[in-house]
């Protein structure tokens, strides 16, 4: 099952396009990548690129990709597609493909992506991917999309929004720790109930408007949610169309 994420951004299509297509801007807001660099290519050839993710301070997992196609339609919609792969032995992703779509909708822009990949490491890799890695990738994509939205709409830089997110996380953790430190004088059952209640509030309380949040993004194509089929839900078909154009 492929991943889908959509954000509605009150910004011009050119701003969102530049901040998602230019490597030096893309890598600033996308939590999935630490580095994105264009590789040399001859004029007229598809654009190749290298991406890297810092897993640990001294460990970086990298891969390469190629822009499979771009399309500007008369209605103002833009689409780009890409293929990517990694030969790094620690990369769970062996190869994949995806697309970006930019759809003007009144005063907003629907910015969405759909992508899928093949995990390595055999059956073990498929289990890890299904239970842990794929949900994490979906969350990271949605969180990053909202981070981009804050940058485009409010002028909050990705670096600043990350500070907001870390500060808010620390406050929520501190509230739980403070509760656990204050209520031990009560019976064990009361103490446990109080800590669980505060933890639930800390987990479910909506983030501040200046803090990125994955929950603000759609995680299913509107066409699928309404029981209809649509191109946004089919990255493979879209890629095939782009590659033939």
From TrEMBL:
The chain crosses the membrane at residues 192-210. The keyword Membrane applies. It comes from the Bacteria. Keywords: Membrane, Transmembrane, Transmembrane helix. This is Membrane protein YndG. It comes from Streptomyces caniferus.
